[in-house]
């Protein structure tokens, strides 16, 4: 094993028991995991299908799989599992759905779907504003991460308010069941509980996963840690790597204490520390180290690098946010030429997604190609997902996922308990939810009002389906949208009329596109049937998602959170100001330490140059305010920082400038 340092080599070759690699950014933790996978396959003769590695994002998983495959001979890595925790959970649920009592083809509720459902359930109680809704969703999520089931939450509720939330939790879980769906937290919680209740199933999975490796361990939550322990058992075939200074998901239940816990749970744990940073120049590394030194530390880590000193860190202060974005764009244009770099060598990082909008416009204006991680593509918009679900149902009434998405969008007063009965009935009879609505047998099992509503919905949908086969398909679709008063629904649910209008424009854009597919303006194009048009749209949707994953020469735009584990030659961080980084909420909650770790993550992504951007004035919360420089800027080593731009100068530079002015004044007198 060439070019691993001795500690890395030790971590790779230690297979005698559980192993923790605890080390700072860029020290080769992820590299250790990749190399260890290859080592297990080639030196320990472990078949790849018995090895599982867990990472934090799909992107990281893809990269790790590619690297590990490149390190082994031929197709020896076939069958290797590299995935996120959530993906592993999903696989377990998918394979064990019968034991879990799910119907095949269960759906997954993303945070937005889950929020909608909770809102639905809470509307009955009358009290509802956004903050409250967020809080309830957060509490439910925390309960799930801590293995607290609804009954337990109810019994330990200490106030009436808590009791109310526990009840919402209970109904929420029931509703998910009725929808044959799981939410994001369930992807971990469900397997954990399955393994507790069915030791024989756990045994099966233990036989399958004989060695487990976990990257970014500091960000595992309680449930994820339990899952790790269940799978590993007392065999101790486990390697985890992490950096407590990069723990940035406490708000989502991550527990960096899990690092300590390992020592307790696995007394034979081998702890290996890595200290050489291979990523960044001396100056970038020093900046990262001095900033993070302001946090209290459980583990001491001394990172060093033998790379060049490198360019100073630039801090560029701009008149306002527009100039800030413009400046980043022009910097990229000039630096790309001067440094002979590619677009993909540049990354623009920011604290919150909304900061990306202006930046995107500027990049577009300058025709700089970019890719936006986690951006909302056309098909990912809620209104498009809704209308697409109606369309899917029109062409395939048996699409249960589509049925569930729209049965109460807009509201039809078909409650979770009705859906639960409907779901059970459909499973027993082996028919789709849609067909179950039409069956007489259902009538005796639900209230008459509910039955009438379902039946009415079924008939209406049936008519649409018939119409879709005729010349009048387009008219049918437009009638469908007005029948359900989708526009009214958008207005009810949007934060402003303008937002609702924009959403409706998207819907009309979708309908117009379908119209053109059915009756192309261009005579050389074959008109499609509605069914084919919709299938084509579904395919386009899938393809768009695929393309997002393609690597091209593009500037990378991503949130600081999403940048974890990645590295880029040149990094810009936007909005290094108080209230942004550190975020206002964290300042108010006295949680600046987590923000400092986030800044540390951002700084340590940079290999060769780091530019910190800020604006003197910025529109925030609807008004233009004077900003203040982030406290993290003061924590940077002043000798390695160069300030530029609007109204700024480092204290030294200010002093120098003062002297210069004085000198020139004196000079004037001299002339006299
Ligand atoms: P992070 O904390 O940001 O996730 P990490 O500890 O996982 O960082 P890696 O991403 O594995 O670090 O490695 C950082 C960089 O250093 C990579 O470009 C990697 O190829 C390189 N590297 C790692 N080990 C060595 C080594 N022994 N010799 C040379 N380069 C190395
Ligand atoms: Mg890493």
From TrEMBL:
Function, in words: Rep helicase is a single-stranded DNA-dependent ATPase involved in DNA replication; it can initiate unwinding at a nick in the DNA. It binds to the single-stranded DNA and acts in a progressive fashion along the DNA in the 3' to 5' direction.
Keywords: ATP-binding, DNA replication, DNA-binding, Helicase, Hydrolase, Isomerase, Nucleotide-binding
Residues annotated as domain UvrD-like helicase ATP-binding: 2-281
Protein name as annotated: ATP-dependent DNA helicase Rep
Segments forming domain UvrD-like helicase C-terminal: 282-565
Known catalytic reactions: ATP + H2O = ADP + phosphate + H(+); Couples ATP hydrolysis with the unwinding of duplex DNA by translocating in the 3'-5' direction
Binding partners and assembly: Homodimer.
A biological process term (GO) from this entry: recombinational repair
Keyword ATP-binding: yes
One GO cellular component term noted in the UniProt record for this chain: cytosol
E.C. designation(s): 5.6.2.4
Family membership noted in the UniProt record: Belongs to the helicase family. UvrD subfamily.
Alphabetized GO MF terms: 3'-5' DNA helicase activity; ATP binding; hydrolase activity; single-stranded DNA binding
Positions bound to ATP: 23-30, 279
């Amino acid at each position: 094993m060439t070019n691993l340092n001795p500690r890395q080599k030790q971590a790779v070759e230690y297979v005698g028991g559980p192993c923790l690699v605890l080390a700072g950014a860029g020290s080769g933790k992820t590299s250790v995991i990749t190399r260890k996978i290859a080592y297990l396959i080639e030196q320990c003769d472990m078949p790849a299908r018995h090895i599982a590695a867990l990472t934090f994002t799909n992107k990281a998983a893809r990269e790790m799989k590619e690297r590990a495959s490149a390190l082994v001979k031929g197709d020896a890595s076939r069958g290797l599992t590299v995935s996120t925790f959530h993906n592993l959970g999903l696989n377990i649920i998918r394979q064990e759905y019968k034991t879990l009592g799910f119907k095949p083809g269960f759906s997954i509720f993303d945070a937005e779907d889950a929020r909608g459902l909770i809102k639905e359930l809470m509307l009955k109680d009358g009290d509802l504003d956004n903050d409250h809704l967020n809080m309830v969703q957060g509490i439910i999520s925390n309960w799930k991460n801590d293995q607290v089931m609804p009954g337990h939450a109810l019994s330990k509720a200490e106030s009436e308010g808590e009791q109310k939330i526990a009840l919402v939790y209970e109904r929420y879980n029931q509703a998910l069941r009725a929808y044959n769906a799981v939410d994001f937290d369930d992807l971990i919680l469900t397997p954990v509980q399955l393994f507790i209740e069915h030791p024989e199933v756990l045994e099966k999975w233990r036989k399958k996963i004989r060695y487990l490796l976990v990257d970014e361990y500091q960000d595992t939550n309680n449930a994820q840690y339990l899952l790790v322990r269940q799978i590993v058992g007392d065999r101790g075939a486990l390697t985890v790597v992490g950096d407590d200074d990069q723990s940035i998901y406490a708000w989502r239940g991550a527990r960096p204490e899990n690092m300590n816990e390992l020592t307790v749970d696995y007394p034979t744990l081998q702890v290996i520390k890595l200290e050489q940073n291979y990523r960044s120049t001396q100056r970038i590394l020093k900046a990262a180290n001095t900033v993070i030194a302001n946090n209290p530390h459980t583990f001491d880590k001394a990172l060093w690098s033998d790379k060049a000193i490198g360019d100073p860190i630039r801090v560029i202060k701009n008149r306002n946010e527009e100039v800030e974005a413009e400046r980043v764009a022009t910097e990229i244009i000039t630096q790309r030429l001067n440094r002979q770099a590619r677009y993909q060598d540049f990354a623009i990082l920011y604290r919150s997604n909304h900061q990306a909008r202006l930046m995107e416009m500027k990049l577009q204006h300058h025709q700089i190609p970019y890719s936006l991680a986690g951006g909302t593509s056309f098909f990912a918009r809620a209104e498009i997902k809704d209308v697409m679900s109606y369309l899917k149902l029109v062409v395939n009434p048996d699409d249960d996922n589509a049925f569930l998405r729209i049965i109460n969008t807009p509201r039809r007063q078909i409650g979770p308990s009705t859906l639960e009965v409907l779901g059970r009935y459909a499973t027993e009879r082996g028919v789709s939810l849609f067909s179950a609505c039409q069956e007489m047998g259902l009538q005796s099992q639900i209230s008459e009002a509910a039955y009438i509503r379902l039946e009415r919905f079924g008939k209406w949908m049936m008519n649409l389906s018939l119409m879709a086969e005729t010349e009048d398909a387009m008219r049918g679709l437009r009638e469908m949208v007005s029948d359900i008063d989708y526009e009214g629904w958008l207005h009810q649910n949007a934060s402003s009329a303008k937002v609702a209008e924009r959403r409706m424009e998207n819907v009309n854009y979708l309908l117009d596109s379908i119209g053109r597919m059915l009756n192309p303006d261009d005579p050389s194009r074959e008109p499609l049937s509605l069914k084919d048009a919709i299938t084509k749209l579904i395919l386009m949707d899938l393809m768009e998602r695929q393309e997002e994953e393609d690597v091209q020469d593009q500037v990378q735009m991503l949130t600081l959170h999403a940048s974890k584990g990645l590295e880029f030659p040149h990094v810009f961080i936007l909005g290094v100001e108080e209230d942004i980084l550190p975020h206002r909420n964290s300042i108010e909650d006295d949680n600046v330490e987590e923000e400092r770790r986030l800044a540390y993550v951002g700084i340590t992504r940079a290999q060769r140059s780091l530019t910190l951007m800020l604006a003197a004035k910025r529109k925030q919360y609807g008004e233009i305010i004077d900003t203040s420089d982030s406290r993290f800027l003061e924590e940077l080593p002043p000798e390695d920082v160069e300030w530029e731009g609007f109204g700024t100068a480092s204290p030294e530079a200010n002093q120098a400038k003062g002297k210069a002015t004085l000198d020139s004044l004196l000079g004037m007198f001299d002339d006299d």
